[in-house]
Write a structure and sequence with these properties.
Blueprint: H1 6-9, H2 12-24, H3 34-47, H4 50-72, H5 77-97, H6 101-104, H7 107-131, H8 142-151, H9 156-176, H10 182-238, H11 249-266, E1 270-277, H12 280-287, H13 289-306, E2 313-318, E3 321-327, H14 331-347, E4 363-370, H15 378-394, E5 400-402, H16 407-419, H17 424-427, H18 429-432
Parallel strand pairs: 4-5
Antiparallel strand pairs: 1-3, 1-4, 2-3
Helix pairs in contact: 2-10, 4-5, 5-7, 7-8, 7-9, 8-10, 9-10, 12-13, 13-14
Enzyme class: transferase
GO molecular function: diguanylate cyclase activity
Protein name: diguanylate cyclase
Protein backbone atom coordinates (compact mmCIF):
# COMPACT_ATOMS: atom_id res chain seq x y z
CA UNK A 1 0.00 0.00 0.00
CA UNK A 2 1.31 3.41 -0.90
CA UNK A 3 0.36 6.79 0.44
CA UNK A 4 0.59 10.05 -1.48
CA UNK A 5 3.37 12.51 -0.83
CA UNK A 6 0.92 15.21 0.19
CA UNK A 7 1.90 14.91 3.86
CA UNK A 8 5.24 16.54 2.94
CA UNK A 9 3.53 19.71 1.70
CA UNK A 10 0.33 19.56 3.76
CA UNK A 11 -0.40 22.88 5.40
CA UNK A 12 -1.35 23.33 9.03
CA UNK A 13 -4.88 24.28 7.91
CA UNK A 14 -5.24 21.01 6.00
CA UNK A 15 -3.93 19.07 8.99
CA UNK A 16 -6.51 20.82 11.18
CA UNK A 17 -9.22 19.90 8.66
CA UNK A 18 -8.10 16.25 8.71
CA UNK A 19 -8.12 16.16 12.51
CA UNK A 20 -11.61 17.67 12.57
CA UNK A 21 -12.88 14.98 10.18
CA UNK A 22 -11.40 12.24 12.34
CA UNK A 23 -12.71 13.74 15.59
CA UNK A 24 -16.20 14.65 14.43
CA UNK A 25 -16.72 11.99 11.79
CA UNK A 26 -17.08 12.33 8.03
CA UNK A 27 -20.41 13.38 6.60
CA UNK A 28 -20.49 11.92 3.14
CA UNK A 29 -17.73 10.54 0.94
CA UNK A 30 -16.12 13.72 -0.33
CA UNK A 31 -13.08 15.69 0.88
CA UNK A 32 -12.36 19.32 0.21
CA UNK A 33 -10.09 20.56 -2.57
CA UNK A 34 -6.83 18.81 -3.36
CA UNK A 35 -7.31 16.25 -0.61
CA UNK A 36 -10.04 14.55 -2.66
CA UNK A 37 -7.69 14.31 -5.64
CA UNK A 38 -5.03 12.81 -3.38
CA UNK A 39 -7.51 10.22 -2.16
CA UNK A 40 -8.49 9.35 -5.73
CA UNK A 41 -4.83 8.65 -6.54
CA UNK A 42 -4.36 6.75 -3.29
CA UNK A 43 -7.44 4.58 -3.92
CA UNK A 44 -6.41 3.82 -7.49
CA UNK A 45 -2.85 2.84 -6.53
CA UNK A 46 -3.91 0.81 -3.51
CA UNK A 47 -6.57 -1.31 -5.20
CA UNK A 48 -5.39 -1.43 -8.80
CA UNK A 49 -3.83 -4.88 -8.41
CA UNK A 50 -6.90 -6.33 -6.67
CA UNK A 51 -9.20 -4.82 -9.28
CA UNK A 52 -7.19 -6.65 -11.92
CA UNK A 53 -7.14 -10.01 -10.16
CA UNK A 54 -10.76 -10.21 -8.97
CA UNK A 55 -12.33 -9.70 -12.43
CA UNK A 56 -10.20 -12.57 -13.74
CA UNK A 57 -11.53 -14.75 -10.93
CA UNK A 58 -15.03 -13.64 -11.87
CA UNK A 59 -14.37 -14.65 -15.47
CA UNK A 60 -13.31 -18.07 -14.21
CA UNK A 61 -16.63 -18.41 -12.35
CA UNK A 62 -18.47 -17.56 -15.57
CA UNK A 63 -16.65 -20.42 -17.29
CA UNK A 64 -17.65 -22.86 -14.52
CA UNK A 65 -21.32 -21.92 -15.00
CA UNK A 66 -21.06 -23.34 -18.51
CA UNK A 67 -21.14 -26.83 -16.99
CA UNK A 68 -24.31 -25.95 -15.06
CA UNK A 69 -25.89 -24.69 -18.27
CA UNK A 70 -25.05 -27.97 -19.99
CA UNK A 71 -26.81 -29.94 -17.25
CA UNK A 72 -29.81 -27.68 -16.57
CA UNK A 73 -30.64 -26.08 -19.92
CA UNK A 74 -28.98 -28.28 -22.55
CA UNK A 75 -31.29 -26.89 -25.24
CA UNK A 76 -29.81 -23.42 -24.69
CA UNK A 77 -26.24 -24.57 -24.14
CA UNK A 78 -24.80 -23.20 -27.38
CA UNK A 79 -26.37 -19.77 -26.81
CA UNK A 80 -25.29 -19.55 -23.16
CA UNK A 81 -21.81 -20.77 -24.11
CA UNK A 82 -21.43 -17.93 -26.58
CA UNK A 83 -22.71 -15.35 -24.07
CA UNK A 84 -20.51 -16.54 -21.20
CA UNK A 85 -17.45 -16.90 -23.44
CA UNK A 86 -17.97 -13.34 -24.71
CA UNK A 87 -18.27 -12.13 -21.10
CA UNK A 88 -15.07 -13.90 -20.03
CA UNK A 89 -13.18 -12.63 -23.07
CA UNK A 90 -14.38 -9.08 -22.37
CA UNK A 91 -13.15 -9.28 -18.78
CA UNK A 92 -9.73 -10.47 -19.92
CA UNK A 93 -9.43 -7.70 -22.51
CA UNK A 94 -10.44 -5.01 -20.00
CA UNK A 95 -7.91 -6.32 -17.49
CA UNK A 96 -5.14 -6.27 -20.09
CA UNK A 97 -6.18 -2.78 -21.22
CA UNK A 98 -5.76 -1.50 -17.65
CA UNK A 99 -2.01 -1.55 -18.31
CA UNK A 100 -2.55 1.45 -20.57
CA UNK A 101 -2.34 4.81 -18.81
CA UNK A 102 -5.48 6.29 -20.36
CA UNK A 103 -7.49 3.21 -19.34
CA UNK A 104 -5.94 2.97 -15.88
CA UNK A 105 -7.13 6.45 -14.90
CA UNK A 106 -10.67 5.48 -15.99
CA UNK A 107 -10.47 1.92 -14.73
CA UNK A 108 -13.27 2.18 -12.16
CA UNK A 109 -15.71 3.48 -14.75
CA UNK A 110 -14.53 0.80 -17.19
CA UNK A 111 -15.13 -1.96 -14.63
CA UNK A 112 -18.60 -0.63 -13.83
CA UNK A 113 -19.52 -0.55 -17.52
CA UNK A 114 -18.17 -4.08 -17.92
CA UNK A 115 -20.12 -5.29 -14.89
CA UNK A 116 -23.31 -3.76 -16.28
CA UNK A 117 -22.78 -5.51 -19.63
CA UNK A 118 -22.24 -8.85 -17.90
CA UNK A 119 -25.31 -8.23 -15.75
CA UNK A 120 -27.40 -7.61 -18.88
CA UNK A 121 -26.01 -10.78 -20.47
CA UNK A 122 -27.04 -12.77 -17.38
CA UNK A 123 -30.52 -11.27 -17.64
CA UNK A 124 -30.59 -12.36 -21.29
CA UNK A 125 -29.78 -15.93 -20.21
CA UNK A 126 -32.48 -15.71 -17.52
CA UNK A 127 -35.05 -14.55 -20.09
CA UNK A 128 -34.19 -17.48 -22.36
CA UNK A 129 -34.35 -19.89 -19.42
CA UNK A 130 -37.71 -18.50 -18.28
CA UNK A 131 -39.10 -19.23 -21.74
CA UNK A 132 -38.58 -22.94 -21.03
CA UNK A 133 -39.84 -22.65 -17.44
CA UNK A 134 -36.38 -22.52 -15.77
CA UNK A 135 -37.07 -19.63 -13.38
CA UNK A 136 -34.20 -20.23 -10.93
CA UNK A 137 -31.89 -18.44 -13.41
CA UNK A 138 -33.54 -15.18 -12.28
CA UNK A 139 -31.30 -15.19 -9.22
CA UNK A 140 -28.08 -15.58 -11.21
CA UNK A 141 -27.76 -11.88 -11.91
CA UNK A 142 -27.69 -11.23 -8.17
CA UNK A 143 -24.10 -12.47 -8.19
CA UNK A 144 -23.02 -9.67 -10.49
CA UNK A 145 -24.47 -7.07 -8.10
CA UNK A 146 -22.76 -8.65 -5.08
CA UNK A 147 -19.51 -8.99 -6.99
CA UNK A 148 -19.28 -5.41 -8.23
CA UNK A 149 -20.43 -3.85 -4.93
CA UNK A 150 -18.53 -5.91 -2.37
CA UNK A 151 -15.73 -7.86 -4.06
CA UNK A 152 -14.34 -5.19 -6.36
CA UNK A 153 -12.81 -2.18 -4.61
CA UNK A 154 -14.65 0.59 -6.44
CA UNK A 155 -15.71 3.95 -5.06
CA UNK A 156 -19.29 4.51 -4.04
CA UNK A 157 -19.99 7.32 -6.51
CA UNK A 158 -19.19 4.87 -9.33
CA UNK A 159 -21.04 1.93 -7.80
CA UNK A 160 -24.32 3.59 -6.80
CA UNK A 161 -25.66 4.64 -10.24
CA UNK A 162 -24.62 1.33 -11.83
CA UNK A 163 -26.20 -0.67 -9.01
CA UNK A 164 -29.44 1.22 -9.62
CA UNK A 165 -29.20 0.47 -13.35
CA UNK A 166 -28.63 -3.21 -12.61
CA UNK A 167 -31.63 -3.32 -10.28
CA UNK A 168 -33.83 -1.40 -12.72
CA UNK A 169 -32.86 -3.57 -15.69
CA UNK A 170 -33.60 -6.70 -13.66
CA UNK A 171 -37.04 -5.43 -12.59
CA UNK A 172 -37.98 -4.33 -16.11
CA UNK A 173 -36.86 -7.66 -17.56
CA UNK A 174 -38.88 -9.62 -15.01
CA UNK A 175 -41.96 -7.47 -15.61
CA UNK A 176 -41.95 -7.23 -19.41
CA UNK A 177 -39.85 -10.13 -20.76
CA UNK A 178 -40.58 -13.01 -18.40
CA UNK A 179 -43.89 -14.76 -17.79
CA UNK A 180 -43.85 -14.68 -13.99
CA UNK A 181 -46.73 -15.19 -11.63
CA UNK A 182 -47.46 -12.26 -9.32
CA UNK A 183 -46.10 -14.17 -6.35
CA UNK A 184 -42.90 -15.04 -8.22
CA UNK A 185 -42.44 -11.45 -9.35
CA UNK A 186 -42.99 -10.13 -5.81
CA UNK A 187 -40.58 -12.65 -4.32
CA UNK A 188 -37.85 -11.91 -6.87
CA UNK A 189 -38.44 -8.15 -6.61
CA UNK A 190 -37.97 -8.30 -2.85
CA UNK A 191 -34.87 -10.47 -3.22
CA UNK A 192 -33.18 -8.26 -5.83
CA UNK A 193 -34.08 -5.06 -3.96
CA UNK A 194 -32.80 -6.38 -0.64
CA UNK A 195 -29.54 -7.72 -2.09
CA UNK A 196 -28.90 -4.51 -4.04
CA UNK A 197 -29.56 -2.35 -0.98
CA UNK A 198 -27.31 -4.41 1.29
CA UNK A 199 -24.54 -4.53 -1.33
CA UNK A 200 -24.65 -0.75 -1.84
CA UNK A 201 -24.54 -0.15 1.93
CA UNK A 202 -21.55 -2.47 2.25
CA UNK A 203 -19.80 -0.56 -0.54
CA UNK A 204 -20.51 2.74 1.23
CA UNK A 205 -19.16 1.44 4.53
CA UNK A 206 -16.02 0.00 2.96
CA UNK A 207 -15.20 3.31 1.29
CA UNK A 208 -15.96 5.21 4.49
CA UNK A 209 -13.45 3.07 6.39
CA UNK A 210 -10.95 3.38 3.53
CA UNK A 211 -11.20 7.16 3.65
CA UNK A 212 -10.85 7.14 7.42
CA UNK A 213 -7.77 4.93 7.18
CA UNK A 214 -6.36 7.27 4.51
CA UNK A 215 -6.80 10.29 6.79
CA UNK A 216 -5.29 8.50 9.78
CA UNK A 217 -2.20 7.42 7.90
CA UNK A 218 -1.86 10.79 6.19
CA UNK A 219 -2.05 12.58 9.53
CA UNK A 220 0.36 10.11 11.08
CA UNK A 221 2.93 10.74 8.35
CA UNK A 222 2.40 14.50 8.69
CA UNK A 223 2.93 14.35 12.46
CA UNK A 224 6.01 12.18 11.98
CA UNK A 225 7.36 14.78 9.56
CA UNK A 226 6.62 17.52 12.09
CA UNK A 227 8.38 15.49 14.77
CA UNK A 228 11.44 15.01 12.56
CA UNK A 229 11.49 18.74 11.80
CA UNK A 230 11.18 19.58 15.49
CA UNK A 231 13.94 17.12 16.32
CA UNK A 232 16.16 18.65 13.64
CA UNK A 233 15.41 22.13 14.98
CA UNK A 234 16.23 21.03 18.53
CA UNK A 235 19.45 19.48 17.26
CA UNK A 236 20.29 22.72 15.46
CA UNK A 237 19.51 24.79 18.55
CA UNK A 238 21.59 22.46 20.71
CA UNK A 239 24.58 23.25 18.48
CA UNK A 240 23.96 27.00 18.23
CA UNK A 241 24.57 29.89 20.58
CA UNK A 242 21.17 31.45 21.22
CA UNK A 243 22.48 35.03 21.38
CA UNK A 244 24.92 35.28 18.49
CA UNK A 245 23.42 32.55 16.24
CA UNK A 246 26.84 31.01 15.62
CA UNK A 247 28.00 27.57 16.75
CA UNK A 248 28.22 27.00 20.49
CA UNK A 249 31.02 25.37 22.47
CA UNK A 250 29.54 21.88 22.05
CA UNK A 251 29.37 22.25 18.28
CA UNK A 252 32.88 23.70 18.25
CA UNK A 253 34.31 20.70 20.12
CA UNK A 254 32.60 18.19 17.81
CA UNK A 255 33.61 20.07 14.66
CA UNK A 256 37.22 20.54 15.74
CA UNK A 257 37.50 16.82 16.49
CA UNK A 258 36.01 15.94 13.09
CA UNK A 259 38.20 18.39 11.16
CA UNK A 260 41.27 17.24 13.06
CA UNK A 261 40.66 13.62 12.04
CA UNK A 262 39.90 14.65 8.45
CA UNK A 263 43.09 16.71 8.13
CA UNK A 264 45.05 13.90 9.78
CA UNK A 265 43.72 11.46 7.21
CA UNK A 266 44.29 13.85 4.27
CA UNK A 267 47.67 15.11 5.57
CA UNK A 268 46.45 18.73 5.43
CA UNK A 269 47.02 21.63 7.85
CA UNK A 270 44.38 22.89 10.25
CA UNK A 271 44.26 26.43 11.63
CA UNK A 272 42.43 27.89 14.61
CA UNK A 273 41.73 31.51 15.52
CA UNK A 274 40.85 32.58 19.06
CA UNK A 275 39.14 35.99 19.11
CA UNK A 276 38.56 37.99 22.29
CA UNK A 277 36.72 41.32 22.62
CA UNK A 278 39.00 43.87 24.28
CA UNK A 279 37.80 45.61 27.45
CA UNK A 280 34.42 43.90 27.22
CA UNK A 281 33.74 44.06 30.96
CA UNK A 282 34.32 47.81 30.86
CA UNK A 283 31.98 48.01 27.85
CA UNK A 284 29.25 46.20 29.77
CA UNK A 285 29.75 48.41 32.80
CA UNK A 286 29.57 51.57 30.68
CA UNK A 287 26.66 50.70 28.35
CA UNK A 288 24.74 47.92 30.05
CA UNK A 289 24.23 44.26 29.26
CA UNK A 290 21.78 44.87 26.39
CA UNK A 291 24.39 46.90 24.52
CA UNK A 292 26.90 44.24 25.46
CA UNK A 293 24.74 41.59 23.81
CA UNK A 294 24.45 43.79 20.70
CA UNK A 295 28.23 44.12 20.67
CA UNK A 296 28.71 40.34 20.72
CA UNK A 297 26.20 39.91 17.91
CA UNK A 298 28.05 42.50 15.80
CA UNK A 299 31.33 40.70 16.37
CA UNK A 300 29.76 37.33 15.49
CA UNK A 301 28.30 38.78 12.26
CA UNK A 302 31.67 40.22 11.30
CA UNK A 303 33.41 36.88 11.90
CA UNK A 304 30.79 35.04 9.86
CA UNK A 305 31.08 37.45 6.94
CA UNK A 306 34.88 37.29 7.03
CA UNK A 307 35.07 33.47 7.17
CA UNK A 308 33.33 32.84 3.88
CA UNK A 309 34.34 29.28 3.03
CA UNK A 310 31.71 26.59 3.52
CA UNK A 311 34.08 24.50 5.65
CA UNK A 312 34.98 27.35 8.03
CA UNK A 313 33.21 27.38 11.39
CA UNK A 314 32.66 30.38 13.66
CA UNK A 315 31.78 29.52 17.26
CA UNK A 316 31.23 31.32 20.51
CA UNK A 317 33.85 29.80 22.76
CA UNK A 318 32.63 31.41 25.94
CA UNK A 319 31.69 34.86 27.23
CA UNK A 320 33.23 37.44 24.90
CA UNK A 321 35.57 34.90 23.28
CA UNK A 322 35.04 33.37 19.83
CA UNK A 323 36.85 30.69 17.84
CA UNK A 324 37.21 30.17 14.09
CA UNK A 325 38.13 26.74 12.65
CA UNK A 326 39.91 26.90 9.28
CA UNK A 327 40.38 23.47 7.65
CA UNK A 328 43.24 23.14 5.14
CA UNK A 329 44.65 26.56 6.15
CA UNK A 330 48.33 27.16 6.94
CA UNK A 331 49.87 29.71 9.29
CA UNK A 332 50.15 32.44 6.65
CA UNK A 333 46.50 32.11 5.65
CA UNK A 334 45.43 32.14 9.30
CA UNK A 335 47.47 35.31 9.84
CA UNK A 336 45.83 37.08 6.91
CA UNK A 337 42.37 36.27 8.18
CA UNK A 338 43.24 37.22 11.76
CA UNK A 339 44.56 40.61 10.69
CA UNK A 340 41.49 41.16 8.51
CA UNK A 341 39.23 40.44 11.47
CA UNK A 342 41.10 42.89 13.69
CA UNK A 343 40.86 45.56 11.01
CA UNK A 344 37.18 45.02 10.23
CA UNK A 345 36.11 45.08 13.89
CA UNK A 346 38.06 48.31 14.33
CA UNK A 347 36.37 49.79 11.25
CA UNK A 348 32.93 49.07 12.70
CA UNK A 349 33.67 52.18 14.77
CA UNK A 350 31.61 51.03 17.75
CA UNK A 351 32.13 53.39 20.66
CA UNK A 352 33.76 51.93 23.79
CA UNK A 353 34.52 54.40 26.54
CA UNK A 354 36.01 51.54 28.51
CA UNK A 355 38.94 51.36 26.06
CA UNK A 356 41.58 53.66 27.63
CA UNK A 357 43.21 54.83 24.40
CA UNK A 358 41.17 54.06 21.26
CA UNK A 359 37.70 54.65 22.73
CA UNK A 360 36.24 52.16 20.26
CA UNK A 361 35.52 48.45 20.14
CA UNK A 362 38.51 46.26 19.23
CA UNK A 363 39.44 42.59 19.37
CA UNK A 364 42.59 40.59 19.89
CA UNK A 365 43.22 37.45 17.86
CA UNK A 366 45.54 34.54 18.52
CA UNK A 367 46.09 32.02 15.76
CA UNK A 368 47.93 28.81 15.13
CA UNK A 369 48.14 26.22 12.36
CA UNK A 370 49.63 22.76 12.29
CA UNK A 371 49.40 19.49 10.42
CA UNK A 372 47.71 17.01 12.79
CA UNK A 373 49.81 14.03 13.78
CA UNK A 374 49.24 10.92 15.85
CA UNK A 375 51.15 12.43 18.77
CA UNK A 376 48.95 15.53 19.00
CA UNK A 377 45.32 16.17 19.86
CA UNK A 378 42.89 19.01 19.07
CA UNK A 379 43.72 20.39 22.52
CA UNK A 380 47.23 21.03 21.24
CA UNK A 381 45.88 23.44 18.64
CA UNK A 382 43.57 25.10 21.16
CA UNK A 383 46.45 25.56 23.60
CA UNK A 384 48.66 27.11 20.90
CA UNK A 385 45.97 29.54 19.70
CA UNK A 386 45.13 30.45 23.29
CA UNK A 387 48.79 31.16 24.05
CA UNK A 388 48.98 33.37 20.96
CA UNK A 389 45.84 35.23 22.12
CA UNK A 390 47.46 35.79 25.50
CA UNK A 391 50.47 37.36 23.78
CA UNK A 392 48.21 39.58 21.65
CA UNK A 393 46.52 40.81 24.81
CA UNK A 394 49.83 41.28 26.56
CA UNK A 395 51.25 43.36 23.70
CA UNK A 396 48.49 45.93 23.86
CA UNK A 397 45.36 44.36 22.35
CA UNK A 398 43.77 45.33 19.00
CA UNK A 399 46.16 43.04 17.17
CA UNK A 400 46.69 39.51 15.84
CA UNK A 401 49.46 37.26 17.10
CA UNK A 402 50.50 33.84 15.95
CA UNK A 403 52.01 30.82 17.66
CA UNK A 404 54.94 30.34 18.50
CA UNK A 405 54.82 33.35 20.78
CA UNK A 406 58.54 34.07 21.19
CA UNK A 407 59.82 37.11 19.36
CA UNK A 408 62.42 35.35 17.22
CA UNK A 409 59.97 32.82 15.90
CA UNK A 410 57.34 35.47 15.39
CA UNK A 411 59.76 37.62 13.38
CA UNK A 412 60.79 34.67 11.24
CA UNK A 413 57.14 33.77 10.73
CA UNK A 414 56.34 37.36 9.71
CA UNK A 415 59.17 37.39 7.17
CA UNK A 416 58.01 34.08 5.78
CA UNK A 417 54.43 35.25 5.43
CA UNK A 418 55.48 38.46 3.69
CA UNK A 419 57.45 36.56 1.08
CA UNK A 420 54.96 33.77 0.63
CA UNK A 421 52.78 33.48 -2.44
CA UNK A 422 49.17 32.37 -2.39
CA UNK A 423 48.59 29.86 0.42
CA UNK A 424 46.73 26.59 0.37
CA UNK A 425 43.60 28.28 1.61
CA UNK A 426 43.55 30.57 -1.43
CA UNK A 427 44.02 27.56 -3.67
CA UNK A 428 40.76 26.21 -2.29
CA UNK A 429 38.97 29.56 -2.41
CA UNK A 430 37.66 28.91 -5.90
CA UNK A 431 35.38 26.21 -4.56
CA UNK A 432 34.91 27.16 -0.92
CA UNK A 433 35.10 30.96 -0.83
CA UNK A 434 38.18 33.14 -0.36
CA UNK A 435 39.56 34.33 2.97
Amino acid sequence: MSLPNSHQDMSADTATYVRRLLDNGMHGLQFEGELESEFERYHLNRYLHLNRVYPLLGALVLVFFIFADHLVIPDLFEQTLQIRAADALGVILVTLASRLAWVRHRYQMTLCLGALCIHLSLIAIAVKAAAIDQFHYQTGSILSVIFVCTVLRLQFHYIFPFALLMWLSQVLAMHFLMHLHASQFTELLFLHTFVTLISVLVCYRVEYETRKNFLQQLLLLYEQEELRAAHAELERLSLMDSLTQVANRRHFNKSLEAEWNRCLRDDKPLALLMVDVDFFKAYNDAYGHQRGDDCLMNVADCLTQTSRRAADLVARYGGEEFAVILPHADQAAAQRLAEQIVRQIYELNIENEGSPELKRLTVSVGFSALAPSQGDTPNTLISQADSALYMAKRKGKNRAHGFPANEASAAAESATSEGAGESDIHDESESNGEI
